[in-house]
Amino acid sequence: MSQPVTITRGTSAARMAGVAALIIVLALVAAPYWAGRADMRLLGEIYLYLALATLWNLLAGYAGLVSVGQQAFVGFGGYMLFALTIFGGLHPLLAIAGAGVLGALISVPVAGLIFRLRGAYFAIGTWVMAEVFRLSFAQVSALGGGSGTSLPTDIVRSMADGRSAREALSYWLALGAALAVMAAVYFLLRSRRGLALTAIRDNELAASSLGIDIWRTKFCVYVVTSGLTAVIGALLFLQKLRISPDAAFSVNDWTAFVIFIVVIGGIGTLEGPIIGTIVFFLLRETLADLGTVYLMILGLVAIVIMLRAPKGIWGFLAERYGLELFPLSYRVRHSKTDKKRPGG
Amino acid sequence: MEWVNAVVQGTLLGGLYALFAAGLSLIFGVMRLVNIAHGDLIVLSAYLGLTTTVALGVHPLLALVLVLPVMALFGYVLQRVLLNQTLGQDILPPLLVTFGLSVIIQNALLETYTADPQKMDAGALETASVSVGPLALGVLPLLTFGIAIVVIAGLQFIFYRTALGRAFRATSDNQEVAQLMGLNKAHIFGLAMALALAVTAIAGVLLGIRTSFDPSIGGARLIFGFEAVIIGGLGNLWGTLIGGILLGVSQTVGAAISPGFQLLAGHITFLVILALRPNGLFPRISG
User: Fold this and answer.
1) B196 close to B81: Cβ distance less than 8 angstroms
2) For a Cys-Cys bond, which of A82, A206, B60, B214 suits B120, CB 3.0-4.6 Å?
3) Domains contained in chain A, number
4) pLDDT tens digits for A147-202?
5) Of the candidates B222, B232, B221, which has an alpha carbon nearest to the alpha carbon of residue B282?
6) Is residue A45 a part of any domain in this protein?
């Protein structure tokens, strides 16, 4: 009973999603020509949250490194943007790249220390690190100490001529960063290392017995994620133009919200953070007037999803309809019957 | 003399940190659960103490008569209704559920009590001190330290000398076999959380007498407790006390060097220990 069999990654749903995504991205790229100032600011924030969520998802959902301290790198990136432009005299764009490189570099000794902690204790260890970063930057009086500092106007002006040109540039940077982060994670997961990562996600013991160096794989993911998170941090504070230790290293803004986004959307999937970001901002724009009650609702939703649908909204949809918008897994296709079976 | 004073005050402060840590250590020891909301539960206890003292006009320490059983009951219900559902091989559910719980408690406190700092009025106890040689020791810090020793000795006794402690240790060693021996895992875990939150109630009320508090300080209390646990070594209750003392001394000595250096000094001590002795000073169990 030998049937001709082909193995593919693509599905028609994925191809359709690809076309739709292309159209949406083109429309978003053109946003400075059709959207208002406030809309662009909101969209920029959405992109940066999407990027943070995608990165946290890679860390927690794939590498099993549940961090509640990624604000360390958001804040570090923000501060590096300020330090490199004010003291280093770098152009803001160069400073953003520099923040990423420095973020990756500093994450090496950080990982060396906190990788000694297992599981949940690792999570709190990352939080301690974020606190160390916050307290350290609060000591630097050249950067405004505990009360923070603003980006000097001549540096802001050096980005582009005129306010609307600057805002458009800042918008495109945010959009570009989100797309780059998603592309990076997507291609990482399709690569050999990504396969190792997915194996670790599914079963650490089995992955290790197949010869995957778990420590090294996780270490690489941590360093790459931290560097990219620092880039996003630099972009976030390029939008805000003002930084202070409490805002830069806020556990609520840069970790709690990001975790909610990923959990609600679906942890361990690439589509999850997109869905989660959309849901999060819809909730925020409609319920934010409720203030603390809104945050309590968010906490409650996250708990209920974690208990009742641990794979989130996307996981639920994907399981039910066999969807996969980012073709990551392999499918065996019998050419006669054209049966689809998700695998890998 | 300034340094001796800093070390002595830090040691006494360590008693409070040991109380933060004991509950955390207990539930990790029994069910390998790390409760991210632990700090917020400490702050919740402080607020319950505040409401009790204001409503009944009693001394904060007397308020414990009410706060302690309320927190213990809350712990039991929380464990049975919510946290037991999260336990398993995967570390994500307990982490994220307690993280969500932390956000809920924090914002519920914010909604009820506003963000204004509050403090409990303990009358003369707050300022009373005894002189030992050239040092003036506050009665409240001394009392806190004494309570920490009694609580840890009590937990140690429960763990190693009672049927309940045997059940805790059995469930910790092997849940399935413990179940086969007729122990109800869900109930045992509920009792462990009740005990942990009873300790949390004591810690919270003592914190609320010592300093002013607001809904946002839970995270830092969790971190202090966690650092004390790791410095002392996982699963070792007396080690937790030593960890708390080391942390407290680091902070007061750091503050004596420069006020901005207080918290940073504590974290640095923790990181140095983590670098040199990743399992803490006196480890009992592996994490």
Assistant:
1) no
2) B60
3) 1
4) 899 988 888 888 877 888 888 999 999 999 999 999 999 998 888 888 888 888 78
5) B232
6) yes
Residue B73 to residues A317, B42, B62, B76, B94, Cα–Cα distance (Å): 39, 15, 18, 5, 20
Q: pLDDT at position A3, please?
A: 61
- Domain membership of residue A339 (yes or no) is no
List b or e across A252-289, with b for residues whose CB sees 16 or more CB atoms inside 10 angstroms. ebbbbbbbbbbbbbbbbbbbbbbbbbbbbbebbeeeee
CB contact at 8 A, B6 and B259: no
**Looking at residue A59, what DSSP letter applies?**
I
For residues A80 and A103, what is the distance between their CA atoms, to the nearest angstrom? 9
Interface of A with B in 291-330 (CB under 8 A): 292-293, 295-296, 298-300, 302-303, 306-307, 310
Share of chain A above pLDDT 90, in %: 45
Q: In this structure, what CATH number is given to the domain that contains residue A324?
A: 1.10.3470
State how far the Cα of A110 lies from the Cα of A28, in Å rounded to an integer: 37
**Residues in chain B within 8 Å Cβ distance of A252:** 103
Neighboring chain B residues of A257 at a CB cutoff of 8 Å: none
Q: Which residue has the tokens 């390998």?
A: B32
State the sign of the Cα–Cα–Cα–Cα dihedral B250, B252, B254, B256: negative
CATH, domain range B2-114+136-276: 1.10.3470
What pLDDT, in 10s, does the model give residues A1-13?
Answer: 556 777 777 677 7
What is the pTM for the complete model shown?
Answer: 0.90
A342 found inside a domain: no
How far is the C-alpha of B122 from the C-alpha of A143, rounded, in Å? 41
Cα–Cα distance, A231 to A48 (Å, whole number): 10
Query: Which residues in chain B land under pLDDT 50?
Result: 286-287
Q: What percent of chain A has pLDDT over 70?
A: 93
Domain assignment present for A319: yes
- The b-or-e profile of A141-172 (16+ CB within 10 A means b, else e) is eebbeeebbebeeebbeebeeeeeebbbbbbb
CA distances from A290 to A293, B68, B116, B214, B220 (A): 5, 32, 19, 20, 26
SS3 content of chain A, % helix, strand, coil (to 5): 75, 5, 20
Nearest CA in chain A to B268: A132
Q: Is A251 on the interface with B (CB under 8 A)?
A: yes
Residue A242 has pLDDT above 70, yes or no: yes
What does the block give as tokens for A102? 């420095």
Q: pLDDT value at position A38?
A: 86
Whole domain around residue A323: which residue ranges? Answer: 5-334
Q: How far apart are alpha carbons B64 and B208 in whole angstroms?
A: 12
